[in-house]
Amino acid sequence: MRRIAILMLAVFLVSSLFAPISASNIAISVEGQQVHATFALSLVQNVTSLPNVSTTVDSSYGSNVSSVFAQSLRDVNPSASPSNLSIGLATTQRGLNLTCDLDVLGVSQRNGDILSVNMTWLPFDVTSDLRAENFSFNTIGSRYFRSVVTHYANASRFVGLANATITGVTFFVNGTSVGAPAAEDYVGNFTTLNFGTLNPNLAQWNRTYTLTNNTTTWRYFPSKLLNFDMQISRKNATTDYVASYGYTATISVPGVGRAQGPILLVDVGSGGTEWVMAAIVILAFVSAIVVQYEFRSKKRRLARFQRK
Q1: CB 247 within 8 A of CB 122
Q2: Which residues share a beta bridge with 134?
Q3: Which residues lie below 8 Å from residue 258, measured CB to CB, with a gap of 6+?
Q4: pLDDT reading at 21 higher than 70
Q5: For residues 104 and 259, what is the distance between their CA atoms, to the nearest angstrom?
Q6: Tens-place pLDDT, residues 233-261
Q7: pTM for the complete prediction?
Q8: What residues have CB less than 8 Å from 34, skipping those under 6 apart?
Q9: Under a CB-based contact definition with an 8 Å cutoff, are residues 191 and 141 in contact?
Q10: Three-class SS of residue 276?
Q11: Do the bridges between strand 25-31 and strand 248-254 make them parallel or antiparallel, or are there none, so unpaired?
Q12: Of the residues 2, 84, 221, 284, which has the fewest C-beta atoms closer than 10 A?
């Protein structure tokens, strides 16, 4: 009974540790000629204690965030620029929730009823040290993680000595054991606003069309940007220090959208396509009713003929 109680307490502590952190997703929508992106990003970790911050960063904040985003977008697409940029931050000691909203200008062009959207801006990477209330919310790896990993990397050199309190140090990246230098570089180079894993070739994304709301959606599931585990052994106890960060991505357009490489093609005409599709659906429905009626009528006539 005592063992069950201890297990339940452990489950409660772990769940409470990560409770404030939600799943990460990048949602991009196209309405008219406007391209809007929402980045809902979450970091879960117990490598260090992060400061508690809850704030919003936008152009009125007096920071260089807008100019940094503008340069990062131009690095991958010279025509792309951000507008209406806003970043919301909420941290606990064990995690970060970051929400970034922006419109992406200069990437859409209409030719008749066809809107083309150039998605080559997707894999942009913000490398600058961006701060809010003196909290570095982008360069978390170099600012908060590297020193901790370096400390334990140095401590590992004393493992086996008589007075050593640490009896073992093991680093894992994506589930594979790595040496201390590789672990330090891996966590030290981590930034939250790195979207380089988003493949702009939409042929690599999963495409679906939903008739009920007349929407085409592309989904992408890149590998995690941060999947780190550090196991520290002290006498009879081993503690895991983990850091995990990744995201999924969706692109949604109204109507029947298609893609050619990194270019989205959307019919933004007067709605003729939708009427044609609706007519096809209604015709198929009516045809099914007629076929069913004819089948039942034929079955009844056959039954009367057999009774005669």
Answers
A1: no
A2: none
A3: 216, 264, 265
A4: no
A5: 18
A6: 988 899 999 999 999 999 999 999 999 99
A7: 0.79
A8: 103, 108
A9: yes
A10: helix
A11: parallel
A12: 2
